[in-house]
Amino acid sequence: MSDALLTFLLRLADDHLILGHRLSEWCGHAPMLEEDLAMPNMALDLIGQARALYQYAAEIEGKGRSEDDLAYLRRERDYVNCLMVERPNGDFGHTMLRQLYFAAFMEPFWTMASTSRDETLAGIAAKAVKETAYHIRHAGEWVVRLGDGTEESRRRMEAAIDALAPYVDELFEGDAVSAEMTKAGIAPEPASLRAEFDRTVGAIFAEARLTFAPAAYAQTGGRQGRHGEAMGFILADLQHMQRTYPGATW
Amino acid sequence: MSKTEIPLWEVFIRPRNGLAHKHCGSVHAADEVMAIQAARDVYTRRGEGVSIWVVPSAAIVASDPEHKDENFEPALTKIYRHPTFYDIPDDVGHM
């Protein structure tokens, strides 16, 4: 049980850390000052959620590792985030679409997890659900305006839909770990979140006059630690300080 | 690509219920929905508010700086308009 719980928590935490890191890469590079604050705001929400999850994971593991050890000192194959969050940022529209997808997936997850039998997870979820609702709103409003905007913004949104399509199905993958979490009343089965995800994204796409085109094939492997070529570069950035100055603190 | 500039919005934040909205700055945004979001992201990061107003900057009518003297100087010599000429009994306490 505690093995499955640990894997489950690390998957969730890694998703949030890696996506938070990706968003933070926009800091100082956003197309306008307002977004230069909005994206790091969302990044900080995600990293805050990751911290809470790593702290809990470290406690469940019970081997004396800290949240920093889990976040910064594992090897690439030990990270179990989904592939979507590690994909490069692309242009602003691409980043907003990825944010919408992830938030539309997490919102029903957190909503259900807020009544989890695991009290620690329920507490993390109760806080995260509000943050996630704002991410949907923020990213969603951009997707609407860029999709139903100029010819160029529309072309870019369509390119983003195509580029991210192979990474959508992985979000909803289940396995023995997720089955055990569901059985224990700790977390919802990812596949059960698909309908709500489709509703959220569908409503926004309708307003944006965009159509979702499923990919010919779906990428998979992140949950088992098999990552794309982007992951090593992320970890090089992310782990540089801790590896150069082990134990460094503020 | 359109060269239209993104409009400017003035942002007013109410720090607590019962207080008035106060001007705190401006943001660029394509429309009112995005302006509220931008204002939230730029001006309420440290728990500054419980309510946001945004107003198109173009809708603000401002006094002419050239009329500063005739507008405001006459008030400077009328100190009797300040309520500082009353003796308040100690029992009233802080007003």
Q: State the helix count of chain A.
A: 9
**Mean pLDDT, all residues of chain B:** 90
Gyration radius of chain B (Cα, Å) is: 20 Å
Return the domain count of chain B.
Answer: 1
| Broad structural category of chain B | alpha+beta
Annotated CATH architecture of chain A: Up-down Bundle
Provide the structure class of chain A.
mainly alpha
**Number of beta-strand segments of chain A:** 0
Measured by DSSP, the beta-strand proportion of chain B falls in: 15-25%
Number of alpha- plus pi-helical segments of chain B: 2
Give a description of the structure:
By secondary structure, chain A is an all-alpha fold. Chain A has helices at residues 2-24, 33-61, 67-72, 92-113, 119-147, 151-164, 176-183, 194-208, 230-244. Chain B has helices spanning 32-43, 68-76; strands at residues 8-14, 22-28, 51-56. A three-stranded antiparallel beta sheet of chain B has the order 2-1-3. Chain B has a single domain (8-92), classed as Ubiquitin-like (UB roll). The A-B interface holds A 32-34, 37-38, 41, 137-138, 141, 145, 150, 152 and B 1-2, 6, 27-31, 33-34, 37-38, 41-42, 45. Chain A: Pfam families: PaaA_PaaC (PF05138). Chain A: This is Phenylacetate-CoA oxygenase subunit PaaC. Chain A: One of its GO terms (biological process) is phenylacetate catabolic process. Chain B: It comes from Nitratireductor arenosus.
Features:
heterodimer, A: 250 residues, mainly alpha, Ferritin, 64% helix, globular, B: 95 residues, alpha+beta, Ubiquitin-like (UB roll), 2 helices, flat, PaaA_PaaC (chain A), Ferritin-like (chain A)
Give a short overview.
The complex is a heterodimer of chains A (250) and B (95). Chain A is built from nine helices and no strands.
Give the arrangement of secondary structure elements.
The complex is a heterodimer of chains A (250) and B (95).
Chain A: H1 2-24, H2 33-61, H3 67-72, H4 92-113, H5 119-147, H6 151-164, H7 176-183, H8 194-208, H9 230-244
Helix pairs in contact in A: 1-2, 1-7, 2-5, 4-5, 4-6, 4-8, 5-6, 5-8
Chain B: E1 8-14, E2 22-28, H1 32-43, E3 51-56, H2 68-76
Antiparallel strand pairs in B: 1-2, 1-3
